[in-house]
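Subgroup meeting minutes
Present: P.N., E.W., G.H.
Scribe: E.W.

1. P.N. recapped why we're keeping a running log of single-chain structure predictions: easier to compare across weeks, and new members can see raw inputs and outputs side by side.
2. G.H. added today's entry (120 aa).
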Amino acid sequence: MASKKDALARRANRVRRSLKAVANGRPRLSVHRSSKNIYVQVIDDAAGKTLAAASTLESDLRSSLKTGADTAAAAAVGKLIAERAVKAGVKEVVFDRGAFLYHGRVKALAEAAREGGLSF
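Output recorded in log:
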């Protein structure tokens, strides 16, 4: 029987495979959520480079947040990644939720990134 880690990896790969089919050269906004923090990157798959990144581990965010594991923290990271991506010249991305459901912290991050100027 497959472990939970294997099942999550399969789900993430399934999501990424479908995203790459419809990306049309747009960078990927990849989200990782742990029990204590949330991390996000804008990745250009064609060049294999990270264009922008943000997480709740950054000192300026850490001091202003109560915890890194709530929707307020995810929204703050979403706004920060949108700022950094626009500064890097990226306005349109495809949203890669990985193995995580579009709910809660992942949804809060996505909505804040949209408000910050990213389009997906």
